[in-house]
Predict the 3D structure of the following.
Amino acid sequence: MRVVCIGECMVEFARRDDGLWQQGFSGDSLNVAWAMRAVLPEKAQVAYLTRVGTDALSDAMVAMLHTSGIATAHIQRDATRTVGLYTIQTDATGERSFAYWRSDSAARRLADDHAILTTALAPADLVYLSGITLAILPPEGRAHLMAALGTRGNRPFRVAFDPNLRPRLWQGMDAARAAITAAARASDVILPTFDDEALAFGDETPASTRDRYAALGVPETTVKDGARPTLWRSTDTDGTCPVTPATRVIDTTGAGDSFNGAYLAARLMGAAIPEAIAQAQRVSALVVGSRGALLAPDALRAAAQPAPRA
């Protein structure tokens, strides 16, 4: 199995309970790659495609990915830009607030070279990207990426996509809707979150979201809706999976991304959609009960396993 995740990894500063700031690295597509690397068999390859600088922070980021087992051969270097940065704080309920410094990050140029993209994606079995991946790119880069993804059924790899709407990254909702819809038409698997879809497209229910993407021809759709049931639909059937409430909620950072990674890993290993959703929910519940998005791989791998039957 060969997976390529495309997007932006940033420097993260998280405020601790003692008022100090702890530095790490994170980003929505990287969180997905991290969960997939933890859950997939060791022989599977999970690679990250992005663009970083040539400075010490960029070096440390690439080294962290390499040490974690995520392949870094597709990470481009930029001598004139560096990586983005954000701060994160959580309230008493675990909800997050962010401040970003990323408007001129190197990752915004990750799709400048169409040849680099096509070379990186050609040997993949699965390519993952998000709406944030699309939002940070200039129009020409976005066009390069969409061209490299090609069309469903006419390429050697499958595409998984989470619309992951962040309105502040887009120049208007019309641009966001157009780009998300185009990416959905090219995707084999789509993993939307209902709140995002209601905001962007006016969907009244999760079923509306599921059915809208099915109408675009997406073969597999799984709609996340927080603690409410997860809806899914494949080419020939559909269903609903209840969510077991997390025993504690400390930090919701990366919960949806970790769900995506665990879900896609399960599907790559042959699990049926309901089984993949259950695995993803267990991993997501572990993540919201801990600080940060990047939990220890052993913990994620253990959470992915179903509890033994009595």
